[in-house]
Amino acid sequence: MKQRNLVNQYLIFQMPDQGPYYGQAGWLAYCTENLEPYRTGIRRIMGVLEIILAQDKDGWFVGDKCTFADLEFLSYNRQSRGVPRLCAGGMFRGFAAYEGLV
């Protein structure tokens, strides 16, 4: 039950934070140069993810396997890599290693 609650908690964090910031930034990157508010938000979100991953010895958000919470965060993060002006620039090594798991 604890793992199920953690998965839901991460999904609730992803929906109002990562999803809108990454989605809006991806669209606006094609029509504006002022993306600093979005880069700041993306760095904040990545910092939170970095802390979560540092606390887990298995390298996943919850437990010892990939869950839908992992897939949600990875899909949006991989989308942002298509827009170089949005990338965090290698600041988050733990998250980069995590991406290599999937």
From TrEMBL:
Pfam families: GST_C_3. Coiled coil: none annotated. InterPro entries: Glutathione-S-Trfase_C-like, Glutathione-S-Trfase_C_sf, GST_C. SUPFAM superfamilies: GST C-terminal domain-like. Transmembrane segments: none annotated. Residues 1-102 form the GST C-terminal domain. This is GST C-terminal domain-containing protein. It comes from Cucurbitaria berberidis CBS 394.84.
